[in-house]
Amino acid sequence: MNLQGSDPEHATEAPELPRALTEPRPVVIAGTVLFAAFFVVALLARNTFGAAWIVCACGIGVGVLGATVLTLQRRAALRGDRGAQRGLV
Question: Which of 19, 36, 54, 68 makes the best surface tag, with the fewest CB within 10 Å?
């Protein structure tokens, strides 16, 4: 990543981020758990939150779908498949 414009002689490269900051699994898991917790709260207080439980249920579904895609991509990367996403191993 060039931080100094278009002059390649004086270009400064950005440092690589640590692996802990680029790992997507904790974010997906934490988001899904939060949606599940809010789902329970929305169901228990349905009179207060109305149809908010539907949004929480969709959030859980998207989280599960995201975790599934990440798992499949990680397995493909470990197998060495050409179409696998890079940086997951």
Answer: 19
Rounded to the nearest 5 percent, the helix, strand and coil shares of the chain are 65, 0, 30
Q: Tokens for 9?
A: 């002689």
Q: Residue 7 burial (CB < 10 Å; 0-12/13-18/19+)? A: exposed
CA distance 83 to 72: 12
Tell me which DSSP letter residue 4 carries: S
Q: Phi and psi of 40, rounded to 5°?
A: -65, -45
pTM for the predicted model, two decimal places: 0.72
How far, in Å, are 23, 33, 53, 64 from residue 56 at the CA level? 24, 10, 5, 12
Report the pLDDT averaged over residues 5-20. 75
